[in-house]
């Protein structure tokens, strides 16, 4: 059962298994790390502040985007879902929009 769930989740992630999306994921992750390290106060102001929701989601999305970006594929379905590029890319696109629009 465990193996079949892992295969099903892998099939769900198959459309995102593209080199350009991986590169985009890495670029977005590095961009947000760089902005946070360069001037944390300015970055925080531009995304609406670091609160108990935004900060952990941002850290998780950056870590998840790096895992996806380097091409690592977890074997177990739980880890595949936890580090899903669908969620991390959505969060990073949202943060990028907040950063660039504000």
TrEMBL record:
InterPro entries reported for this sequence: Cyd_oper_YbgE
Record field: transmembrane: 20-38, 50-71, 77-101
Keywords: Membrane, Transmembrane, Transmembrane helix
Cited Pfam families: Cyd_oper_YbgE
Protein name: Cyd operon protein YbgE
């Amino acid at each position: 059962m465990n193996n079949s769930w892992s295969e099903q989740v892998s099939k769900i992630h198959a459309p995102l298994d593209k080199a350009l999306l991986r590169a985009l994921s890495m670029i977005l992750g590095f961009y947000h790390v760089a902005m946070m390290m360069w001037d944390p106060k300015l970055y925080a102001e531009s995304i609406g502040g670091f609160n108990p929701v935004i900060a952990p989601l941002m850290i998780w999305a950056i870590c998840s985007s790096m895992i996806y970006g380097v091409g690592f594929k977890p074997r177990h379905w739980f880890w595949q879902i936890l580090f899903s590029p669908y969620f991390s890319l959505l969060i990073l696109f949202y943060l990028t929009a907040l950063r660039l629009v504000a």
